[in-house]
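Exam prep: given the inputs below (a chain plus FNR), describe the expected output before reading on.
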Amino acid sequence: RRLDNALTIDDLRKAARRTTPLSVFDYVDGAAESEVTADRNVQAFRDLTFHPDALHPVADPELEVEVFGRRWALPLGFGATGYTRMMHHHGEAAVARVAQAVGIPYGLSTVGNTTVEDVRAAAPEVDLWFQLYPTSQEINAELIRRAQNAGCSTIVLTCDTAVSGKRFRDDRNGLTIPPTLRPATIVDMARHPSWWVNKLTTEQVSFASLKFLESKYKFNEIADRVFDSNLSLDSLDWIREQWKGQLLVKGILSAEGAAEAVEHGADGVVLSNHGGRQLDRTPAPITLVPQVRKALGDQVPILVDSGIRNGQDIAAARALGADAALVGRAYLYGIMAGGQDGVARAYEILSTEYRRAMQLLGVRRSIDLAARHVSLPDT
Ligand code: FNR
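Solution:
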């Protein structure tokens, strides 16, 4: 009922704010430093202009696309986000199940709270990706092997986390993973009882994929260990040698960076500023799509994320030259608002909006979305 009342992703965000402890909501909603980039990401989509084809009726648009030789129901994937069982006890398995049910890919994070094996068991057919935060070669090799055994099609190497971005909301809220009991936590429990009941009655896992690290190091040390300040093109070369599947590099913010990643073996790139959670004051990735497409040519898949809150945004990404878009917060607001049903609702909202955008643009198939249908400011 509550989910039916959510008509937009922003409605899900408001519902999430009510159902979830503030420290958890802020971990998702917040971003780095002054949060300039996080705002800019969303604003960049609002600043785009659509140019519909007149008198091109579209009764039943064909939404699906083919990326990496696979059929996606929509040019959209659920991107990797850490600690999803903190947002809601349904966690990563629920996101994977929805992705499987609708026919889009899901990327599991290295710092997910569910192992790649458990996600695969929950969603045997989903196009599963594994997002890699490389640590030591020994651990990387192990994670790559497990991703392969779990039938992941793709490894996503995240390259914008030399160190963790500074997110002041988390400091101010005293966020710890897992949550620690403080006086403020007890007040919060009274305000969000069902979140806490679920938390306390389901199994707690902090670093599912890196469990073997957990016994060796304290929590805060692990966080530092997960991010590799030495990640380089050599690391990419090494991963390329180890991994025979699809390899994506995520966190690219320039045509040069994209070309370099492809020269070093990436099969595609994800233009991303990590949803504004890493370096603040970076460009909105959507504005870079045309120049990166020009640099890489027509054959290399380009994905884009950061700031997608509406199906129109996905249509714009596609029209500007991306193969597909990824979302993080959009489905996380959904899971916080209503667990697996909330993730399904987020997808339903985005796909309905995308379909309507196609009809109003007069575009019958996703592959027909073209540069003439959207313009960036000053172009
Ligand atoms: C993320 N993101 C992320 N990326 C990644 O490569 N590994 C990770 O573990 C995480 N964790 C994570 C947690 C949370 C709470 C958020 C919101 C994001 C970044 C994510 O994959 C994606 O780049 C952004 O979420 C895209 O921006 P939007 O859609 O959230 O605006």
